[in-house]
Design brief:
Helix content is 18%, strand content 26%. It is of the alpha+beta class and 199 residues long. It starts with a helix and ends in a 22-residue tail after the last strand.
């Protein structure tokens, strides 16, 4: 870890103390984990404390850890990852918060702290099904209002559950169960026995 990241890690530990559930360095940036119950307090400290000053939320995304790498999942399935930028200190931080429940994932909205979170939280709700209590207008943003499910969950079928089409007899769009068979999207490659041998 370089000296700039080490100094940031020390500042985070001194300000947030034991509310940090984990911190590590990856790809030249720090990733800090806090519990969902401490998120709003930690986010306010990250934005307002003079040693930190992460004024801007650059991005927010959901993560589904149902299958992660080649190892079985341990702990919570869903997480929300916040990418923060301190303009005044020229530093970046990745903040990760795991949802307490897998059946109904929920993480408090940070829209009151970083207003740029508004559409990112709506997108994460729409695609992953993570609910953000305290969000002023949490509704679908990319899929149709009648869409069933959340397409970025790893247990969502590739072909979906329903398809829509225009019905000329009813003069409207109708939804119906998917009429195609589930299939593999990776092509099967069959090579000859001596493929690649140099003669």
């Amino acid at each position: 870890m370089n000296t700039k990241l080490a100094a940031l890690a020390e500042n985070l530990k001194s300000v947030l103390g034991d509310r940090i559930a984990g911190i590590d360095e990856s790809h030249g940036e720090l990733t800090m984990v806090v519990n969902a119950t401490d998120l709003l307090w930690a986010a306010a400290q990250l934005r307002d404390h003079a040693q930190l000053r992460f004024e801007q939320l650059v991005d927010l995304c959901g993560v589904d850890y149902l299958e992660f790498g080649n190892r079985p999942r341990e702990g919570a399935r869903f997480a929300v990852v916040y990418h923060l930028l301190s303009i005044s200190r020229n530093q970046r931080l990745r903040l990760r918060v795991f949802a307490a429940e897998d059946d109904f994932p929920s993480v408090d909205s940070v829209n009151g702290i970083w207003p740029s979170a508004n559409w990112y939280e709506r997108e994460t709700f729409d695609l992953f099904g993570i609910v953000f209590p305290g969000h002023p207008d949490l509704r679908r943003i990319l899929t149709d209002y009648g869409f069933i499910g959340h397409p970025f969950r790893k247990d969502f079928p590739l072909s979906g559950y329903v398809e829509m089409r225009y019905d000329p007899d009813q003069s409207r769009v109708v939804y119906q169960p998917v009429s195609i068979e589930p299939r593999e999207t990776v092509p099967r490659v069959v090579r000859e026995a001596n493929y690649g041998d140099v003669e």
